[in-house]
Amino acid sequence: MGGPYFFIVMTIKDCFKLGKFTKPFRYSGEVVLWMDVDDNSPYRNVKVVWAEERKNLVPYMINKLKPHKDRFVAVIDGIDSEEAARSICGKDIYLPLSELPDLGSEHFYFHEVPGWRVLDLNSGEDIGTINRVLDHGPYPMLEVEHESVELILPLPKNFMVEVDRENQILKVEIPEGLLAVFLNPGSMEEEEGDNFLSGDFFQQ
User: How much is the pLDDT for 148?
Assistant: First the structure.
């Protein structure tokens, strides 16, 4: 048993979701921890995670974390029985945003770009301000406000992106003619517009 520990108040808006406590492991209080990240190597020595309880985030000290198949088995301070382990299973776990690894100039975290300006990577044209990143389809898309018009810009993996964190600018490869679909919707036939926005237009 460790402690005492002192923590600042943490809220979900200050954090990113790391994963989840999924199920007990054996009978001594160990719990399976799943990390919902592409690369878990930066978090293999994590010492504390946060879980939501009654609309607040509370810390859980991890005394030991060992790989188990594609997941981890965690020994958590104060969780010393199967019953106690079951009580926390199903909880999403979080880490502070400050613990996210630094990314280079070709990648960005979705949470960091709302409010940034978007420029056309090829022409340098200022497209507008990012409202949010939509991540519900085969690839993420930027929701951008351009002179009171809402644009949706796709970000397939083969599209080039340049990230300027110092100036909060995202330079994005924009397909020729895409902006006209939003800015001049009456300039083309409806059928052509439907085909233009279809999956055929964004072939990988």
Answer: 83
